[in-house]
Amino acid sequence: MLSTILILLVVIIAAVLIYAATRSNDFVTARTASIKAAPEAIFPLINNFKQWPEWSPYEKLDPLMKRTLSGADAGKGAAYAWEGNAKAGKGRMEIVNSVPSSLVSLKLDFEKPFRASNSVDFTLKPSGDTTAVTWAMRGNRPFIAKLMGLFMSFDTLIGKDFEAGLANLKKAAEK
């Protein structure tokens, strides 16, 4: 009886591991908000890291977080490094592409709580008196992330942050 249970347990664990291994290596998380402001009013809030404390939900994870701005003041070449508590972690992001009033692309590198390199795009599309702002992140998932993804939704976790950030961006741009 015990050997049957043990064999069944091994088969279940093996099946879960095999299934996780077959999942896509890539992920994309994106959220969009409609903001009643021109792209020209929204773009500087994204394109300049000095503006991020006004709207980014990640700025509030650690009030004692160390922040270092380097490179250009805004736009391509502007960089932002941070080091904070366990929630904030440690990492660096750099604007790698900036198209006035329509696109800001970032290279985002995490060191803690885990190592990861992702790309982030903020796209702005005007429509009448509003602008659709999309915050998207793409990256590669190592096996452990694929395994964890079977039990928790990273899209939901990250998506909540993006939704909060876009709501904050909306408030900042519409005032």
Secondary structure elements and pairings:
Elements: H1 2-22, E1 26-35, H2 39-47, E2 66-70, E3 79-83, E4 90-99, E5 103-112, E6 116-127, E7 130-140, H3 143-148, H4 154-174
Antiparallel strand pairs: 1-7, 2-3, 3-4, 4-5, 5-6, 6-7
Quick summary:
The protein is of the alpha+beta class and 175 residues long. The protein is built from four helices and seven strands; from the N terminus they run αβαββββββαα.
Give the terminus-to-terminus CA distance.
69 Å
Specify the number of helices. 4
Low-confidence runs of at least 5 consecutive residues: none
What sequence of helices (H) and strands (E) makes up the elements? HEHEEEEEEHH
| SS strand fraction | 35-45%
Report the C-alpha radius of gyration, rounded: 20 Å
Largest sheet geometry:
7 strands, antiparallel
- Number of DSSP E strands: 7
Within the largest sheet, what's the order of strands?
A: 1-7-6-5-4-3-2
Q: What class, by secondary structure content?
A: alpha+beta
Helicity range = 25-40%
Shape: elongated
Could you tell me the mean pLDDT?
A: 90
